[in-house]
């Protein structure tokens, strides 16, 4: 069976086509600048060069039609007919408290997604538009929603509630939700496989460190805490997001700049970018640090220190830890980050072998063989999880 996986942003649409007989990717692509001048589709049939099509793409419906046309193309396509598509899976950012697992899309689910939209005003409306565009193009193909928040729904109330008046939770749904749940789920399950032990026996800290970053404490297969919150803004220092700050800093800046500008400052102008003054990309910050730039060195230290603190906190929250997993752009690729985060964690039972750490983008255990706590790099694969859930839930 072939499954199309879609990740819709407000002006973009990413996709992959899987052959679920062997879980291989047949094609992938990205539509950019939907509704903006200069829109284009970059489509890659696996094993061939990417093909870029520049065209007016005023909305997601036109984007979906263009993607389907590419999938059927005689040269770079991977389908003879759209009937070969068994199902379509969508990444949906926010499932609120309505969804604790992936779900087949029905009219009732669409209504629930619309109820969740105010919680993720930038993302969920785009996800809904993507589902509607597929429904228009492929009305008889089943669709499944896979939520970034769902894996975190197992958190206990003392971890997900904020100590603000209860009415903000009861009436406005203000609480910790957490994000990157699909990635935390994939790498924690894979970690258990690598260790050859049932996940129900394990306490795992998963560090998804990318442009956006979050950690999760996964005890016995269930999330008990995670570092992102009501939105993806809190937690560790990120590319442009500030991570944890004293909430009074927010009101202080807001009094000067207004709420909207403050939101932009904390989400888009802070983090590595705000501290280094150089870049949101850790590679640039690392280059600056290596050349002796003090601001870059500070930004790097702040990021790795914040991750280290969360590891300590989550080991305490779970009463121990069996494995620490690094994943996503930084976690998979940055040996320096992995070293700076793990140095000094010997008290927890972490014993590193840094001679194994100098590599990028593959699955590998980087702790010493006699380390009580295993430290493992696991490339994440959110699209594959979406494809697997879609296959399971669509019929
Ligand atoms: P993601 O959001 O998971 O795609 O991660 C993207 C981020 O990973 C980039 O912004 C970089 O900061 C980081 N990254 C990718 N490769 C490297 C590398 N070799 N060293 C350090 N950081 C990297």
TrEMBL record:
Subcellular location: Cytoplasm
Site residues (Transition state stabilizer), renumbered to this chain: 180, 241
Residues annotated to bind substrate: 91
One GO CC term, this protein: cytoplasm
InterPro entries: Ac/propionate_kinase, Aliphatic_acid_kin_short-chain, Aliphatic_acid_kinase_CS, ATPase_NBD
Active site: 148
EC number(s) stated in the UniProt entry for this protein: 2.7.2.1
Coiled-coil intervals, chain numbering: none
Enzyme class: transferase
Chief location: cytoplasm
Chain sites annotated for binding ATP: 14, 208-212, 281-283, 329-333
Protein's pathway: Metabolic intermediate biosynthesis; acetyl-CoA biosynthesis; acetyl-CoA from acetate: step 1/2
Co-factor: note: Mg(2+). Can also accept Mn(2+).
Cofactor: Mg(2+); Mn(2+)
Biological process per Gene Ontology, one example term: acetate metabolic process
Binding site for Mg(2+): 7, 382
Reactions mediated catalytically: acetate + ATP = acetyl phosphate + ADP
Entries under PANTHER family matching the protein: ACETATE KINASE, ACETATE KINASE-RELATED
NCBIfam families: ackA
Oligomeric and partner information: Homodimer.
Family as reported in the entry's similarity comment: Belongs to the acetokinase family.
HAMAP family: Acetate_kinase (MF_00020)
Function according to Swiss-Prot or TrEMBL: Catalyzes the formation of acetyl phosphate from acetate and ATP. Can also catalyze the reverse reaction.
Protein name listed in UniProt: Acetate kinase
Source species of the chain: Pyramidobacter porci
């Amino acid at each position: 069976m072939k499954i199309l996986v879609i990740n819709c942003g407000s002006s973009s649409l990413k996709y992959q086509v899987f052959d679920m007989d062997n879980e291989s990717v047949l094609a992938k692509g990205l539509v950019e600048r939907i509704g903006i001048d200069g829109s284009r589709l970059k489509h890659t049939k696996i094993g061939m060069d990417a093909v870029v099509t520049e065209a007016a793409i005023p909305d997601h419906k036109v984007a979906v039609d263009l993607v389907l046309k590419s999938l059927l193309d005689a040269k770079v396509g991977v389908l003879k007919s759209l009937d070969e598509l068994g199902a379509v899976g969508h990444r949906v950012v926010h499932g609120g408290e309505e969804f604790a697992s992936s779900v087949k899309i029905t009219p009732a689910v669409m209504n629930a997604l619309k109820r969740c939209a105010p919680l993720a005003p930038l993302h969920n409306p785009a996800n809904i538009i993507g589902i509607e565009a597929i429904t228009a193009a492929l009305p008889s193909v089943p669709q499944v929603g896979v939520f970034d928040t769902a894996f975190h729904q197992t958190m206990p109330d003392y971890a997900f509630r904020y100590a603000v008046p209860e009415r903000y939770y009861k009436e406005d749904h203000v609480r910790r939700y957490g994000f990157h749940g699909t990635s935390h789920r994939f790498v924690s399950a894979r970690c258990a496989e690598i260790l050859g032990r049932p996940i129900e026996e394990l306490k795992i800290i998963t560090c998804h460190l990318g442009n956006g970053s979050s950690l999760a404490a996964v005890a016995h297969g269930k999330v008990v805490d995670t570092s992102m919150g009501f939105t993806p803004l809190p937690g560790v220092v990120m590319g442009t997001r500030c991570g944890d700050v004293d909430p009074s800093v927010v009101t202080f800046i807001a009094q000067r700049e207004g709420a909207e500008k403050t939101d932009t400052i904390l989400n888009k102008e802070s983090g590595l970018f705000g501290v280094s003054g150089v870049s949101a990309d850790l590679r640039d910050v690392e280059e600056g640090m290596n050349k002796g730039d003090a601001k870059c060195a500070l930004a790097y230290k702040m990021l790795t220190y914040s991750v280290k603190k969360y590891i300590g906190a989550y080991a305490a929250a779970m009463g121990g830890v069996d494995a620490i997993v690094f994943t996503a752009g930084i976690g998979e690729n940055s040996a320096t980050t992995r070293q700076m985060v793990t140095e000094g964690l010997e008290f927890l039972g972490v014993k590193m072998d840094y001679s194994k750490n100098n590599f990028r983008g593959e699955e590998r255990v980087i702790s010493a063989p006699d380390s009580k706590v295993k430290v493992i790099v696991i490339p994440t694969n959110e699209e594959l999880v979406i494809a697997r859930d879609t296959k399971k839930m669509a019929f």
